[in-house]
Amino acid sequence: MISCLALLHTVLLGGRKMKFENTGLENQTVELSRLDDIMERLGFVRAAQWDYERVTYDRKYVVKEGTYYLRVQGYAIEGDVDSRYALIKLLTPILGKHYYPHGVEYGDDEHFPSSLVSQCQNVLAQVKSELEKIKE
């Protein structure tokens, strides 16, 4: 029952997230294998967080205030994620805090340390820079 309530809570909070807007990543398109390489080099993990149409990359941060995850999501506009060829369109990156045993919360009520937000902004700038290199 607790996990169902946690899932419901997460779903209800789904529209209220700590977003990193205007990073230049939103609406970027990139081929999946190249995106996988870039994200892995920058410390993101895709693991099993995908389906045929969507991908999710997470980078974990453990700081004094807790465990946080920077998440970059995208969806296939061509191909399928499982085929290793897909053209992915990126969404706005988000930051969430992990609560044991319920999972990660992305709500407006979360406190995000300014040093962590700066680290995330720097990593997202690196992602953007790497994407620009492959577009040249």
UniProtKB/TrEMBL annotation:
Report the Pfam families cross-referenced here.
YugN
Provide the alphabetized UniProt keywords.
Answer: Aminoacyl-tRNA synthetase, Ligase
The answer, when asked if Transmembrane is one of the entry's keywords, is no
Signal peptide span: none
Molecular function (Gene Ontology), one example = aminoacyl-tRNA ligase activity
The answer on whether this UniProt entry bears the keyword Ligase reads yes
Query: What is the recorded name of this protein?
Result: Phenylalanyl-tRNA synthetase alpha subunit
Which organism does this sequence originate in?
Geobacillus proteiniphilus
